[in-house]
Amino acid sequence: MIDTTIDTATVPSRPRRGGRVAHLRLYLSAGIIAMFVLVAVLGPVFYEFDPVTTDVAARLLPPLSSVDGTSYPLGTDPLGRDLLGQIIYGARISLGVAAGTVLGGLVVGAVIGIISGYFGGRLDSFIMRLADIQLAVPPILLAILMVAVLGPGIQTLIVALAITRWVFFARVSRSSVLVARERPFVEAARVSGLSHRQIMMSHIARFTVSPLLVVATMQIGLVILAEAALSFLGLGASAQEPSWGLIIANGRGVLLEAWWISTLPGVALSLLVVSVAVFGDELRDRLQPDLRLDD
Amino acid sequence: MQYVIRRLGHAVVVIFGAVSLMFVILRLVPGDPAIVYAGPSATPEQIDVVRGELGLDQPLYVQYVSFLGDLVRGDLGESLRLGGSAVSAVADRLPATGLLALSAMGLAVLLSFPLGIAAARRARTAVDYSISTFSLLGQSLPNFWLGLVAILVFSRALGLTPSSGWGTWQHLILPAIVLSLPLLGVLVRLVRAGLIEVMGEPYILTARSKGLTGRVILYRHAMKNMLIPVITVAGLQLGQLLSGTVIVEVVFAWPGVGRLLIDAISNRDFAVVQAVVMLAAFTFVMLNLIVDLLYGYLDPRVRLEAK
Predict the structure, then answer these.
(1) Best of A7, A28, A128, A145 to disrupt the B interface by mutation (most B CBs within 10 Å)?
(2) Which stretches are transmembrane (chain A) (predicted)?
(3) How does the average pLDDT of chain A come out, rounded?
């Protein structure tokens, strides 16, 4: 007979970790994210690198190589460009695209969601139906379609990804508004003659802040992945912009002779994405333990 | 029955909307769509022919109506690159993608139960933490990178599997595993959390006080209620899985619809791009509909709530 006793009195259904582990997860992930941000902002100042110039003599050097006094800590790619320099620049692209996309999606989505939830009725059902329709096309496919139509490039990518994101922000802000709207002080504000706009801005909007923050963190991870994937497919960054996804794609042709080109940028990408996921998870446990993100 | 009709109506509205959305996006092409559709090497005469064929000289609403008409007849235009209709180009690639997606899905569902149960039974132990970490990594590691690393390790270093292509069942192993990981990660979490919750329900206590063994309680009573959320989430995550096939097919040179899409984009073969995205949207909505209906069938409370 197997033991299936599960002590439900002490184990919560969400994997909430003990205080110390949770703290460690939060600070460790925040530290790693901060490090990436620092590298993205300051890296190019301290580490000299030119993403455009190629050097055939230095092609496909393994990590820890050094040629004519120039050292290549992580080796070089098929065009002789320094891999470490590319990865540092890649952090800039990755975080830049994520910040632009999530900020754009958040602002548009939050405004739509707040208005939709506050007024309710036909407008609300119309907007939510629109969201359903957009979600009928998987987000990555929608982004691929838009990039295919508008042509590749960082700006297009940000716009395309932001358009696929507004739905998630709109849904979560709407559901917070639906709860906040029923509070007595909203009624009081209405009776005292405040306009809808004033009520939304000063009484309703702040209820959406913490769920939006949680969703934004999670979306940053997803957008970083989406950017890398699209660039990997040749639908994102152009050849002069060393996005991690693009570097990984560049290494595919020489995967067996030069393993480092495709694998090392992926380590940076994975570390960042996993840290963002853990950070988002901890943030949710602290701010919005009941938030559902499946739908 | 009323519930079925309502869901069906919703699905029709959503597909109609998604199709219209696509019409709008495809008309956003900068410059003259005829030039884009005719391809980069077309002569001005060819471009004129394409313009006539596509009805681009007509007003926009006429274009929209004829676009919908073509769609109903299953006509999505001709592939410039491959010759023949775009629909048949997609249909040729469909079995390969179906095989890959279903294998990945099956793998994820089958593995999620033992892993989720193990984590729940040993909650807050090293077993639980390792399984949870595995599921976190499965959900967040980039699949294109994971695919390349898998090729390096399993094909190159260990020589266990073919690196890419298709033909034998060995070719399916790596792509199916890589594609299944994100879904597996989600499902493991779900089974773990759901089991812990279900085990606290009064009817489990009843079963236990009747003197039933742990095994019977777990498999006969608890599992039955776990199936519903797992099926639902697996169904809802299928969109993710579909997007995943695009990347996995490119990495492993798998001759499916995803690779067709990427090839079509680089060749600017828009009829094929359009056909693939339509198919994806249609499949996705249909799957959601099936999941909804199944959910209503398995859990009568849902049907009542929907009224």
Answers:
(1) A145
(2) 26-47, 93-119, 207-238, 258-279
(3) 85
Which tens digits make up the pLDDT trace of A248-282?
998 888 888 888 989 999 999 999 999 999 999 88
Q: Is residue A3 very low, low, confident or very high in pLDDT (cuts 50, 70, 90)? A: very low
Rounded-to-integer distance, Cα A45 and Cα A211, Å: 36
Please give the ipTM for the structure prediction. Answer: 0.84
Residue B106 has pLDDT above 50, yes or no: yes
B20 to chain A: nearest residue by CA? Answer: A133
Radius of gyration of chain B from its Cα atoms, rounded to whole angstroms: 24
Choosing among B121, B148, B181, which should be mutated to test the A contact, i.e. which has the most A CBs within 10 A? B148
Q: Write down the pLDDT at residue A202.
A: 85
Residue A266 to residue B149, Cβ atoms within 8 A? yes
Per the CB < 8 A criterion, the answer to whether A207 and A180 are in contact is yes
Residue numbers in A near B200 (CB within 8 A): 8
The span from the CA of B171 to the CA of B162, in Å, is 6
Counted across chains A and B, CB pairs separated by less than 8 A come out at 169
Nearest CB to A145 within list B143, B277, B285: B277
Q: Does domain B92-257+283-306 have CATH number 1.10.3720.10?
A: yes
CB contact under 8 A, A3 and B121: yes
Token code pair at residue B223? 């599992």
Contact status, residue B263 vs residue B275, Cβ threshold 8 Å: no
In this model, does residue A10 exceed pLDDT 70? Answer: no
Query: A163: which chain B residues are within 8 Å (Cβ-Cβ)?
Result: none
A274 and B137 within 8 Å at the Cβ level: the answer is yes
Contact (Cβ atoms closer than 8 angstroms) between residue B143 and residue B244 = yes
d(CA B72, CA B282): 13
Among A137, A259, A262, the residue with its CB nearest the CB of B277 is: A137
pLDDT at A21: 79
Give the model's pLDDT for residue A213. 92
Query: Which pLDDT band holds residue A47 (cuts at 50, 70, 90)?
Result: confident
pLDDT band of B39, cuts 50, 70, 90: low
Tell me the chain A residues in contact with residue B152 when contact means C-beta distances shorter than 8 Å: 255-256, 259, 263
pLDDT of residue A228: 94
Nearest-angstrom CA–CA distance, A215 and A167: 11
Amino acid at B213: T
- B25–A263: do the CB atoms touch at under 8 Å? no
Is 90 exceeded by the pLDDT of residue A231? yes
Beta bridge partners of A70: A67
The chain B residue lying nearest A227, using CA atoms, is B142
